[in-house]
Amino acid sequence: MIFASDNWAGAHPAISASLADNASGFAAAYGNGDLDKIIEKRFCEIFEREVAVVFVGTGTAANSLSLASVAKPGGIVFAHREAHIIVDECSAPEFLSGGLRLHPVDGPGSKMTPAALDSAVARFAPEIVHDGRPVAISLTQATEAGTVHTLDEIEALTSVARRYGLSAHMDGARFANALVALDATPAEMTWKRGIDLLSFGGTKNGCWCAEAVVLFDPTAAKDFGFLRKRAAHLFSKSRFIAAQFDAYLRDDLWLETARHANAMAGHLRDAISASNRTRLAWDSEANEVFAILPRTLAESARQAGAVFHDWHTPAELAGSIQPDEVVCRFVTSFATSVDDVTAFAALIRE
Amino acid sequence: MIFASDNWAGAHPAISASLADNASGFAAAYGNGDLDKIIEKRFCEIFEREVAVVFVGTGTAANSLSLASVAKPGGIVFAHREAHIIVDECSAPEFLSGGLRLHPVDGPGSKMTPAALDSAVARFAPEIVHDGRPVAISLTQATEAGTVHTLDEIEALTSVARRYGLSAHMDGARFANALVALDATPAEMTWKRGIDLLSFGGTKNGCWCAEAVVLFDPTAAKDFGFLRKRAAHLFSKSRFIAAQFDAYLRDDLWLETARHANAMAGHLRDAISASNRTRLAWDSEANEVFAILPRTLAESARQAGAVFHDWHTPAELAGSIQPDEVVCRFVTSFATSVDDVTAFAALIRE
Amino acid sequence: MIFASDNWAGAHPAISASLADNASGFAAAYGNGDLDKIIEKRFCEIFEREVAVVFVGTGTAANSLSLASVAKPGGIVFAHREAHIIVDECSAPEFLSGGLRLHPVDGPGSKMTPAALDSAVARFAPEIVHDGRPVAISLTQATEAGTVHTLDEIEALTSVARRYGLSAHMDGARFANALVALDATPAEMTWKRGIDLLSFGGTKNGCWCAEAVVLFDPTAAKDFGFLRKRAAHLFSKSRFIAAQFDAYLRDDLWLETARHANAMAGHLRDAISASNRTRLAWDSEANEVFAILPRTLAESARQAGAVFHDWHTPAELAGSIQPDEVVCRFVTSFATSVDDVTAFAALIRE
Amino acid sequence: MIFASDNWAGAHPAISASLADNASGFAAAYGNGDLDKIIEKRFCEIFEREVAVVFVGTGTAANSLSLASVAKPGGIVFAHREAHIIVDECSAPEFLSGGLRLHPVDGPGSKMTPAALDSAVARFAPEIVHDGRPVAISLTQATEAGTVHTLDEIEALTSVARRYGLSAHMDGARFANALVALDATPAEMTWKRGIDLLSFGGTKNGCWCAEAVVLFDPTAAKDFGFLRKRAAHLFSKSRFIAAQFDAYLRDDLWLETARHANAMAGHLRDAISASNRTRLAWDSEANEVFAILPRTLAESARQAGAVFHDWHTPAELAGSIQPDEVVCRFVTSFATSVDDVTAFAALIRE
User: Fold this and answer.
1) Subunits close to B (at least 3 CB pairs below 8 A)
2) Could you tell me which residues come within 8 angstroms of residue C320 by beta carbon, excluding any fewer than 6 positions away?
3) C74 and A91: CB-CB below 8 Å?
4) Domains contained in chain D, number
5) What domain range is D196 assigned to?
C-alpha cells in the first residue's frame, strides 16, 4: 500500500528490458547515436510536427533549463502559487536561469485563472527596469493537486501569454496522466493550444530516469545544448535515456501505464468517497488523490502498512478542517495494484 | 574497432542485470531508500573510513558541485591547463559555483608540477579582493592524457594545497583505471595522500550513468544536498544509481573492468610501438593511448572501420610533428575486445 | 511642486561642500584612506558599538549584497509583498546572491505581521532540499508605504527570525526618516531590537550617492569585501563616499534633513485631509504620502506644475476606490520647500 | 611624490565645480534627466556617430556589464593574460555575465598578438558544447603595462574577432591617456577600427566616479538597462555622473588632463633612464611607468616620501632581474606636479 509518490516505484519491465537490450555494442555519445535520433523522430511523430528534443535526467532540470532558454535579465515567470517550480525545486529555476524570478499567481485547483494571470502580468510595465520584465508563463499539467487543465483552460492561459508576448511553458512531469485524463492528443494538449516548450516527463510514469524538453521551435535547440552542458546535464551515454523512451513510447506503453495509474487513483477516490470516516479534500483527475483523514485514522492506516504523505493545508481549506484532521496525499503509478487499493479501502472503511 | 571514447560503450552485463533486479517493488525516493544507504556504507568500507556519498548523473556535475562546495566569492581553483574541468565542461564549474575562476597551471603529461602550482598560488596575495582568492586545487586521476599521478605526486600537490589552506579535489572520472595502474587502494590514492573530496566515476568504466561525490569530511554533506538540488541534479529514483554501484562495487567488478581496459590500452601501445608507420605521442598508463599517425594512415584505418578522434596537438609536440601527421587518441574500455585491438594492429602494421 | 521622488532632489549644499573640500590631495584608494576610516569610526559612535561599514553606490547594492552575505544555496528570504527588494530591484537580490528566493509575506501598511511571518517560515521544514531553506528576513524602515515599524514591531519580527535561526536585515534606504519619526536612536532601532545587518541610505536624504552596509557582526566584513568586489561595487576613489557621509553625519545634518522632509510630508497630509476633493489612501509617518485623487484633479494639478506618480492600487483598497479615482504618491525631501507644499495645497483645495 | 595610482588623486577642480553647480534643483532620476540626455548627445558628437551611453560607477562594472551584454551560455572571452579583467577584477566579469570564461592570450607589452589570438580562438570548434564557444575579445587601451595599441594593432585584433564572428570590446579605463598618446580621434580608436563596445573611463583621469559604457550599436541599450539594474548599478541621482562628464568633456578638459598625466610619465621615464641606479622595465606610452630598482633604492625612496607599488615580475623579465632588484610601478595623473617628478628624480639620481 505504497502511495507515497509515483517516484517510489521502480521501472516498468519493458523499460528495464529495453535498457538491457541496448546495453551491448558501441554508440556515439552525447546524443549523437542512432537511437537518440530515432527517438527524436518518434517525438516528431507523436507531436505531429517537427520538434527538437533535449534529454535530461530530472524534471527539475527540464523545467529549469526550459525557463532558462527563454530568460532575459530581470525576467519574470508566472506560475501558480503551488506549482512545483515554485514550491519544490529549491530555486533551481532561478539559479540555472541566472536569476529569473517566479511570480506566484492564484487560482483554484492549483490552476491559474486567466484573470489572475492577466492582472499579475499587467502590473508590470513592459520596459521599466526596476520591476523586471515578464518573459514566460509556466503551467503544470497535470498539476500538483492532481487536477488537469482542460484544453480550453490551456488556451485561455496561453492567450494571455501571447497577448503580452510571453513564452508559454508546460511542466509535464505527469504529462501522460493528464493526456489520458483528457483523452487528447499530445499536439492538442500543447502547441495546438499555444504551448511553446514542454517538459516531458517519463520518470514518474514508469521510466528510471527519462525526461525531455520538447521545443516546438526547433531552432532553439542549438543554444539549448549549451545551456544543458553548462548546467552539467548532458549525459555521455545518452542512449540509456533513449532506450527508456524507446520502450516508453512503443505500442503506447506510456498511455497504458498512465491509464492504469489514473484508474487506480479513481478507485482510491471511490473508496475515500464511500467511507464515512474520511472525505476527498478536493476532486482530482490524474494520479494524485487528496483526502482529509482523522489523525487517528491516518496513524492506524500507517501502522497497517499504508505509506502516504501529510500535505500542506491549502488556505481555502483552512476553515473546513478540524484540528484532529489532516490532509493527506495519495499517489498511484503503473506499479500500484488493485489489491493495494482494495486493502487500503478496507482500512478506511468503517 | 571503436576507440572513440570509453563512453561509446554501453553498460556491463552485470550493471544491466542489477538494474533489472532492482526494477520492481517500491523504495523511498531521493536517496532515502535502503539500497542507497547500503551503497553509502559500501563506499565507507572501500575507503576505509567514514565518508559521505552524493550521487549525481554526470562527471561534470560531480566536478562542478564538488568545487561549488568549497567555493567562496572571488574564489580561484588551480588545475592543469588541459584538465577536463577547464577544456571540456563548457564553464559548468564556474556557472554552478557562482563564479569560481579556474586558473591553468602547467606541467608535463597533463600533471601540474608542485613548483608550478606553488608559484601560481603564490602570486595571489591571500586577502586582496582585486585578485580573488585561492580556494582549491583539482587534479585529474587518471589525466586526460592517460597518465597517472603517483601517490607521491598526489601528496606533493596536496601538500602545496595544505600549505596555502586550499581544499584538494580529485577528478576521478577514470578513478578505477588509475587505481589499478598504481595497484593502490582507494584510501591510499585519496585521503591518505591529502585529497579532501573526490569525483568518483562509474560511467566510463561500465555503468550507464553512475557518478558520486565522495566527501572525506562527511559533515559537508548537508550543504551539498542543497547545492545538488539547486542545480537540478537530485534524482528521484535514486536507486537506479545505487543499483549500478551495487553491481559495480561487488566482487571487485570495477577493478576487473578497469584492468581489462588498461590491458587493452597496453596492447594498443605495444602495437603502435611495434609499427614503423606510427609512434606513441607520449607514454600513458591508463586506458587512453595517444599516437602520431600519418594522415593517410589515419584515413585508411578509418575507412577500414576503426573509430578514433583526432586530438589537439600539445605545444610541446609542435616541433616534432610533420605537417602530414596527426595526433590521435584511442580509448579502451571494459567493452574493448582483444580482437578489436588485434584487427587495428594489423591495420597499422606495415 | 516636485513630489515625484526624494531622488529627484540633488545634493544638500553641505554634502556638495564636503566633496569640494576633499577633492584635492592624494588618498589611498579602495577604502583605505584616512577619511574612510574616520567615517567607519563615526558609524561605531552613532550605533554605540563596534560595527563594520561597507560603502556602496546604490540602495539596491546595499540590499543585495547584505542578503548575499547571509545566503546559502537554496536560501529563502522573507519580506513584505510590497518590499522594495521584491517589487523594485529587478531581481538584483536574487542575482547577486546566486539564487536566493524572496518569499512575499502579507501585512497591513507594508509591514509583515509576526504571525504571517511565522506561518510563512513554518511551512518550510528546516532541512528538506526540495523546499529550499529559510535564511533571513528583511524589513524596510521606513516602508515603501511611508509607514514606520515601531521598536516593538521590529523586535516582534526579529524574534521570529531568531526563533528559526534566521538573520534579520533592515532595508534602511529611508533610515533617517524612520528614526526621527520614532524619535529613537540608531542603536535602538537596529541591533538592540535584533537587527543583524543594515542597509543605511544617505542618497534619498541629501547625498549624491552614499549608501553603506552596516554589519553588527564586524567579522563578516572580510568576506563581504569579496562579495562587493565580485559584484563590481568597490569604488576606487572611496573618499567621495566618505566625504558625503562626513558632512551627512556631522552636526546631525542627516537628522535635520529627515525631520524637514517628514515635516513637509506632514503638511501635505494635512492639506490632503483638509480638502474635500481628495483623501489619504492610508496614514503614513515618514516622508511619503499616499492620496486618492479624482483623475481630473490629478490631471489639473499636473498641468499646474505638480509632479507626482500614480501608484499601484493595493488589494485592500480595491473596493473603496471609484473608477474615476487614482492612488497617487507624494514624496518629500530635504529640498522640498514650504512654498511648494502650500502651492500644492491650494491646487487641491476646493 | 604619490605615484601609487591615478585613483589616489581626488577630483579635478572643474569636476568638483560642476557637481556643485548641479546640486540644487530637481531632476528626473535614473538617467531620465535633461543633463543625462545632453551628455549622451555629447558622446555622439565626440564619437561622430549615434551611440548609446550607459553610466556606471566603476570600471569593473563597465567591463563586466559590457561583456555580459554579449555573453551566451558557455561563452568565452579572449583577453591578454595580464588584462585587468583577468587579474584585477575578482571574477566580476564572470559573475555578472552568468559564467563567461576569460581565456588568457599572450603577447609582449600586455598586448595580444593577432597570431596568438587567432590560434587561441581557432582551438575552439565553433559549436561543440564541451568546449564552450568564443563570443568576444577584450583589449585594454591603454594597457595595464602603460603601453598603447596602435590603430593598426587594434584593427588587426578586431579583424580576427570579425573573422570568427566575435564582438570586440575595449577596456578604456585609461581611454584618454591612450587617445592623446596616439593623437587619434575617439572614432578612429574605436568603431572605425572595429570596436563594438567600449568601457569609457573618467575616474582615473580626474572624475570622482564617472564611467560609461559606449555602445556603437545603440539598439543594444534596452537590454543593457536590465543588465545594469539587475547588477544594482543603476544610480538614482544619475545627474551626479552626468555633471562630472559635463565638465570632463567640456573644452577638451579630458584630453588636457590626460596629456598632463602622460607628460608627467614622460618626465619620470626620462629621469629613470638618466639614472644609472635604475632602468626602465619596459617602455610605455601612457601614464604608467615601470622601472627596475635596487631594493635598497626603492626603500630609501619610500622613506623619503615617494609612494609607489611593487609590481609582479613578468615572466619575460625573470632572467634579467637580480635578486636584489624589484619591478616598481609609477602612475601619474592630472594631479601629479612637475615638482613631484623633479623631487623623485633627485631621489634616484646618483
Assistant:
1) A, C, D
2) none
3) yes
4) 2
5) 11-253
